[in-house]
Amino acid sequence: MSTTLEIRDLTAGYGRxxxxxxxxxxxxNFGNVGLFGPNGHGKTTLLRTISGLINPREGSIRxxxxxxxxxxxxxxxxxGLIHVSQGNRLFPDLTIGECLTLGAYPKRxxxxxxxxxxxxxxxxxKLAERWRQKVRTLSGGERQMVSIGTALMSSPRMLILxxxxxxxxxKIKEELCASVLGISERGVPLVVVEQDVEFLLELSKxxxxxxxxxxxxxxxxxxxxxxxxxxxLYFGQ
Length: 237
Fold this sequence. Notes:
about 240 residues, 10 helices, Rossmann fold, six-stranded mixed β-sheet
């Protein structure tokens, strides 16, 4: 069975303010999915709602035909849906090795801990060089590698990345993009929010433009949209 995430008529927000307005989309039919759009228009809120950090007001979220809307983040992780939040939210005084070990906490991942660790080191060889180094001493790019590596230790059935290259220097950004593509090649379906549309197009031909908490445009594989047309959609030209 292919891994799918189906979102139907989802409404969510903060306090009394709705950020998502009956948003619907399907992820998994065409492999990886890229989400893009202006800042502050609901992309991160959507990811946080999918992963259980925000409770939806209305709507359905089904992962592999199981309703997960309203479940705890821990329960959603046990189903194999893993979310790497924006901003490198790690324990600063743990070492790289300790962070990766924490990533193997889900019951479904414990038997594969050693194999997953080997896979993470192949994707991010720099982590092996700094195995006993504390997270707070790492660069922004290295911390992002630890964040994604920790997620991979959980044996994800689907991996959600929220702006993984945000704030990185061009060379580090290029290395990280290559690593993310490598994760995809290992068979883990990805949902990626990213401002770099060129990277999204390299990662996936299935894109959603999120604007004002709604799906403004869906770009499916086979549609003949070039970069300039996508940027026109982005800026509303």
